Amino acid sequence: MGLLDFDLFDLVGLGDASGLELLFGASALVGGILFVLYFFLLMIGGIATDVFDGLFGIDVDLGADASFKALTFQGIMAFMMFFGLAGLYVLKTPNGNASIAVLVGALTGTASMYATGKLFSLFVSLQADGTTETSDAVGSKGQTYLKIPQGGVGQVTVEVNGVQRTYNAKSHDDVEIDTGNFIEVVGIMGDILVVKRV
């Protein structure tokens, strides 16, 4: 058997499938492959958003303001996968009916699309809950991590909301603050903390 004789549908048991079986099988296969590929790319560094945006022109927003919408890319992948799997399962039962298979596939796909949206909303809310505003650091005390040069920017570590964080910082009176000196945050300038030696 050569490479040209390879048939993906034979591999998954759909070599002699009817038109509706092929529809369900193709839907499950395409949805499943895209779903697994998306999560694989997401796990190796969050590059899935860039890849799918570039390949398909689809805007995949995982920012803190992303909320569940029925027609997200993740939802469509889940719908295709579960529509195909459920429809194929019902169609392959002894008394499988095409109308019932389409109905069950559509209901299962819709439920999975809704559940996927809720799951991504949960991920986004967990991500949002872990963020800290720079302004929360005002009044915190810590140490200089990288020397703050005269009139320049260095780095400090301060405890904000119970978590030790590193920020870019400058001296409030433009004096040099050496590494390891204790500091207090007295203000912010954009994303840069303004600190004084204590």
What does this structure look like?
This protein is an alpha+beta fold. The protein folds into two domains: 121 residues, no CATH class; 64 residues, Beta Barrel (OB fold (Dihydrolipoamide Acetyltransferase, E2P)), CATH 2.40.50.140. The chain is built from five helices and five strands, in the order αααααβββββ. Helix 2 packs antiparallel against helix 4 and helix 4 runs antiparallel to helix 5. About 9% of the residues have low confidence.
Number of helices: 5
Low-pLDDT segments, ≥5 res: 54-70
Main sheet summary: 5 strands, mixed, barrel
Euclidean distance between termini CA atoms: 78 Å
Radius of gyration, CA atoms, in whole angstroms: 27 Å
Strand order of the largest sheet: 1-2-3-5-4
Domain unit count = 2
As a percent range, the share of helical residues equals 40-55%
H/E order of the elements?
Answer: HHHHHEEEEE
Question: What topology does this entry show?
Answer:
Elements: H1 8-11, H2 19-43, H3 48-56, H4 73-92, H5 98-129, E1 141-146, E2 154-160, E3 163-171, E4 182-189, E5 192-197
Helix pairs in contact: 2-3, 2-4, 4-5
